[in-house]
C-alpha cells in the first residue's frame, strides 16, 4: 500500500500573528456609551480600557475633573466598566486623550 499524506484545509486567519504580537493596528477600541435612565437622567459608561490601568484612579480623576459621581462595575461579559452620572461622553474622550491613556482613533462614542 502507498501512504498518502492528506492535508485537510482549515480556515486561514491572516491576523493570527498580529493578534499575538500586540501590534498597534490590532488594539481594541474604548467604547463610550450613554444610557437613558428615567426622565432627563443619563448614565455614561466607559469600557474597553486596557487592563493594566487602575480603573479606580481613572474614576477618581474623572469625578474630580468633571464634578460628577460614578463607580466601577464588574461585569462577567464586559469586564470592568466605569459608570458616570450625566452625559460625559465628550468630557471622558478629551480626558483620555489629554492624559495620554488612549489615542483618539481608538475611541468610539455611541449614543443618540
TrEMBL record:
PROSITE patterns: SUI1. Keywords: Protein biosynthesis, Translation regulation. SUPFAM superfamilies: eIF1-like. Residues 30-100 form the SUI1 domain. Transmembrane segments: none annotated. Belongs to the SUI1 family. This is SUI1 domain-containing protein. Probably involved in translation. The keyword Protein biosynthesis applies. It comes from Hevea brasiliensis (Para rubber tree).
